[in-house]
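Handout, page 2. Input:
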Amino acid sequence: MKIKTEKPVLTDKETLKEVIECLIENLPISTKKTETEKDLYNIIIGAASSADSIENAANKLDKSCTGKTVRNYLVNNFPSFQELEVQINQALISKLPRRIKKKKHKLAIDINLIPYYGNPSESEKDYIYRSQAQSGTCSFYAYATIYIIAKNKRLTLGLIGIKKSYTNVAIITYLLDKIDSLKLKFKRLYLDRGFDSGSVIKWLMALDIPFIMPAIKNGITGGINQYLKGKKSYKTTHTMNQGKNNEVTFPLWILCKYLKGKRNKYGIEYLAFVAYKVNVRLNYIAEDYRHRFGIETSYRLKNLCRIRTTTKNPIRRLLYVGISFLIVNIWIYLLWSKICKPRRGSRLVYHNLFNLKQMLAFLSNTVNRIYGVKEKVYIPDG
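Output:
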């Protein structure tokens, strides 16, 4: 067996330091002398690395402050939803690989839903998003993200917490505004079918943004269903009218696919896409749109390091979601900057040596070493 004698390119201590420094720089916390900013974020990262609550993470440590102390600092330091949103977005773009800005990439926008149960208070109502039922509820905390597809990795560039009053046009505008400072050049934008509306299509065409979005198959004589016929794929145009002064004509691509026993089905399957100024072959558009599904992967990764909580406070929930996306971004940053070798053309990245679960283990183990893990239980006197 070959013995590795070379110096490690990354340690668990360095990994925690990278995360903590990014948090302190972008989301500072004012503390007293008894607890330092670093102590608080160590406990928060300990909870995130185990997908646990802050209370449980603090209880298992021997020499840390209590979970209640951490929560009180969070309440006092992050009183504004909008200010916290700005800080999180600054943190997200602070850990982008430098070469990202030099090339054109594909962007995607989607909405992530976290179930909400119970009756919201007056202060919570504006942050509850209504959608189709899932997980036993129609009410959700909703977060919209814009992410970039680069070298088979998904980097989250922007995050906003969705309010009840937000329209789809507003969500897209806010997210594009979040990345405006990056001055990114992108090939096209992928959108979920939930954004399919005349106002969204008209707005994106007015901005002259190339985009692909599935068209909702509706109507019988005048809707999208009227185009689902024939045996060949083709391009056409469709005019959508959703009320007074809301008429828009857009390119519609109809893809005709023969199932040939796929999913135990036979015959023809029709797929419809709104495709504006995209340089893609007609027969390849469905395969190209599959790149958007990577955002679902980013949500699964985010859930591996999302702090669990029962609080209904929208600000604290936004903070926990933001930290989880930030950890994933830092993981990708470390992969491209540390776990790689330069070579001609593009660098060789060793993804198998440092997956996200390995990074979370690094973070958890380091926090446990700093504060020690409780090994004994005592009954209090009296």
